[in-house]
Write a structure and sequence with these properties.
81 residues; mainly beta; 3-stranded antiparallel beta sheet; 2 helices
Length: 81
């Protein structure tokens, strides 16, 4: 499963990177408010678990552009249009 979405603060407002390890990058315009993650399911229906395969926090480019090849995932799941 590919997840692409907007990161928001706990109160639903804009994410503040200033107290995170990404503070310097965000201050220099190198972080956005988006998240991209690739997850893989395992186990049966009753015991299904999702494991994070790869992710990008606040990417400024298509950080997932090679994930289809790298992780043998269907390319069509990465269409964010």
């Amino acid at each position: 499963m590919f997840l692409y979405g907007q990161i928001v603060a706990g109160d639903g407002g804009k994410l503040d990177y200033s107290a995170t390890p990404f503070a310097d990058a965000a201050a220099n315009g190198l972080k956005t408010d988006t998240y991209a993650g690739l997850f893989q399911a395992s186990g049966g229906d009753a015991n299904q678990r999702w494991t994070r395969v790869d992710s990008a926090i606040g990417p400024t480019d298509l950080a997932w552009s090679d994930w289809a090849v790298r992780y043998a995932a269907p390319a069509e799941i990465f269409d964010t249009r």
